[in-house]
Amino acid sequence: MRDLAVRLAALDAEAGAALQVIAYFDGLVEGRAGLQSIVRGAAVLAGCPARLDDDARRVHIRMLPDGIAAPLPGPADESWPGQPVGTAMLRLERVGPPGPVDAMVLERAAGAAGSVLDRTRGRAPATDPAAVELVVDASAPADVRLHAARRLGLPVDGTAYAVALGSGESRLAAAGTPPPTTRAGIGPAVPLLDLPESHQAARTALRFAAEGTDEDPGETLVHFEELGGLAVLALVPDPAGVPDVRALEHAANAAPWVLTTLHAVASTISMRAAATVLRLHHSTLQDRVEHAEHWLGWSVREPQGRLRLQLALALRRLHRHPS
Q1: Which of 121, 139, 160 marks a domain boundary?
Q2: Does residue 308 share a domain with residue 242?
Q3: Which end is more exposed in the chain, N or C (fewer Cβ atoms within 10 Å of the end residue's Cβ)?
Q4: In a domain, 93, yes or no
Q5: Are 285 and 275 in contact (CB under 8 A)?
Q6: Of 46, 39, 101, which is closest to residue 70 (Cα–Cα)?
Q7: Where is the domain boundary, 226, 258, 285?
Q8: What sequence ranges are listed for the domain PucR C-terminal helix-turn-helix (predicted)?
Q9: Which of 22, 59, 63 is nearest to 40 (CA)?
Q10: Phi and psi, residue 196, nearest 5°
Q11: How many CB atoms lie within 10 A of CB 14?
């Protein structure tokens, strides 16, 4: 196969590259390579980071184009080219549609990863909402809750954390397990009998998690422990009634770019950094901010104004995601 790929490459470079991709992953399958080797191959051949995410099986692997494993920087971008692998998704971290070679890399790597998942992980463990509900029910007897925790595969002598998903589902995971890649709130890792508190914290954190859209820009994954004093905002009975939130809604209705622009200004260290995030020229951002300040009624370029903006954005999100 390799000789054929070399000869074909001399006639048609793209066809030769595709054949080399096929030969590469066939070799990995034949050698019963593991998931990390497969994702590494995808990253190296595509020349960009590649990642395999399977929330159901709690499998998350990310490799850099130099073949080095790297931690997940955050949830995957849905616009990245990807290939489903059962409950998992293999993605190349690059913008734009995949070229012919990238498409071949995704297809062959996904096929190889699927065979490994079926061989080593079997079917994804069924979610047991009843067991989760029992573990986080502080009124249930301790021995019953620990028995339910064991059924979920949690380490009885270790720590675990609760996850509140945007879908309304709750999950529990052993400490050190990567968080999901979808919109979620994460509670602190605690001993198993303290998981009711972690679950409540996760539900609070979920209210601060954005949808990641133009209507609701921001982080989609929020850890309760990182909220600090902001967590008390969740106690505000009517966030929409706060005057600054009303002003923010007024500005949001004035132009479609307002919320993403103000979020970038509030979450970066400078106007120039915000312009980079938004991929705007600095002068264009200045024009937008001047308009937004007019609609808001205060400056967002001073420290106090940025703080007002951050609080207004957080309160608006709490209003969009009530408890």
Answers
A1: 121
A2: yes
A3: C
A4: yes
A5: yes
A6: 39
A7: 226
A8: 259-314
A9: 63
A10: -55, -40
A11: 13
Contacts of 25 (CB under 8 A, 6+ apart): 38, 41, 108, 109, 111, 112
This prediction's pTM: 0.63
The burial of 31, by beta-carbon neighbours within 10 Å (0-12 exposed, 13-18 middle, 19 or more buried), is given as exposed
* 31: nearest Cα among 144, 116, 105: 116
Q: Mind listing the pLDDT tens digit for each residue in 61-73?
A: 889 998 888 887 7
Verify that 100 and 139 share a domain, yes or no. no
Locate the DSSP E strands across 199-240.
221-223
Q: Cα–Cα distances in Å, from 69 out to 35, 164, 187, 251, 303?
A: 12, 28, 26, 43, 39
Domain count of the chain?
Answer: 3
Same domain, 196 and 278: no
Range of the domain at 153: 129-226
- Look up residue 175 and give its amino acid: A
Residue 47 covered by a domain: yes
Any residues with CB less than 8 A from the CB of 68 and at least 6 apart, and which? none
- Residues across the chain: 323
pLDDT at 140: 85
| Least confident interval from 14-18, 93-97, 168-172, 245-249 | 14-18
Torsion of CA 90, 94, 100, 103, to 10 degrees: 10
Give 152-196 pLDDT, tens digit per residue. Answer: 888 888 899 999 999 889 999 988 888 888 899 999 999 999 999
